[in-house]
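sorry for the late reply, my laptop died twice this morning and i had to redo everyting from scratch. anyway the thing you sent over, i finally got around to it. pasting the sequence first so we're on the same page, its 213 residues, then the predicted structure underneath. double check i copied it right bc i was rushing
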Amino acid sequence: MKKTVLFDLDGTLTDSGEGIINCATLALRHFGLPIPPYEDMRTFVGPPLHDSFVRFGVPADQTDEAIRVYRSRYIPTGMFENTPYPGIRELLEKLQSEGYTLYVATSKPEEMSVTILNRFDLAKYFHRICGASIDSSRSTKDAVIAYLLESSGAKADMVMVGDTKYDILGAKAHDIPAIGVGWGYGKVEEMVEAGAVGIAGTMEELVELIHGM
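ok and here's the structure:
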């Protein structure tokens, strides 16, 4: 049985779409770009911002400026347009009481991730919160997991939980099985195609899948 669990943050632990989409909209307007439909803007939740801005028309050599504009709203306001998913606190309490060691592995900058989880009183459940570097030199899920493994001394005998294909593929790069959750911002079919070992539609199903690893 795998007793260590890595959790993604956005779309897995908290519903952060409102703040992310509002800030991404501000950045796209800064460049005079059209604002896509809401369903398309939802794809900003999860991947590294550099990649998302390029997909929506920001020139690759100007993504740093897009991120600067994004963060000008995100840091004071956007990161708190966010709420934990119903039942997530109880899930973390249960796993912790059962002896699981819990980590966060997120493509969101680490300092912001710690601030958000402290705001919602969720940081206390995690042995460590690992995220991207503020300069984006460490931004992909693969790189964040590598950083977590190297800096924490954790072994790769663990399972990843996330809501997008990026979580599944990032874990797969380290031979870590990954469970997808259906309440976030990714597409179930993409997570399955990426190699998810299971998809949880509810907190109860997630507990069962973790227990079965």
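The beta strands are 4-7, 14-15, 83-84, 101-109, 128-132, 159-162, 178-181, 198-200.
thats about all i looked at so far, will dig more tmrw
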